[in-house]
Specification:
Blueprint: H1 2-21, H2 28-48, H3 71-80, H4 88-107
Helix pairs in contact: 2-4, 3-4
Length: about 130
């Protein structure tokens, strides 16, 4: 009886560890938030890259805030921008923007709350918070 009890306790411990190790699946909000940050960072990297085509400087600005209703129009305009189609990095960025737009209007439509509709706020880069001395 003792070896069976040890096996049972080992199985329970293993299952408990597996449950603790697994994380919650991403929510619509967390997915949209992480993808918007990824797109904004990729856009910044693209703008500062020396090795990219000069047309990249003419791309519409892409600073995203998923809490701003204007983000939908910003994403549509960026994806529809006709120039730079020969630049691989731009096409990849447009594909990510298209995915974010689709997630926002289809999958997360009821889960998101837009806190503002200030389109001008999406024209400037989002600065990281500064530390107070």
């Amino acid at each position: 009886k003792l070896p069976t009890m040890k096996k049972l306790l080992s199985l329970i411990a293993l299952l408990s560890a597996a449950l603790l190790a697994s994380t919650a699946p991403p929510t619509c909000y967390s997915r949209v938030l992480s993808l918007s940050k990824e797109i904004t960072e990729s856009f910044k990297d693209l703008q500062t890259s020396e090795a990219v085509d000069s047309c990249v400087k003419t791309l519409p600005r892409l600073y995203l805030d998923i809490h701003n209703y204007c983000v939908l129009a910003k994403l549509r305009n960026f994806v529809a921008y006709p120039r730079c189609d020969t630049v691989l990095e731009v096409n990849e960025l447009k594909e990510k923007a298209r995915s974010l737009y689709t997630i926002l209007i289809s999958y997360c439509r009821r889960d998101l709350v837009f806190l503002t509709d200030d389109c001008n706020a999406l024209e400037i880069p989002v600065l990281p918070p500064t530390e107070w001395s």
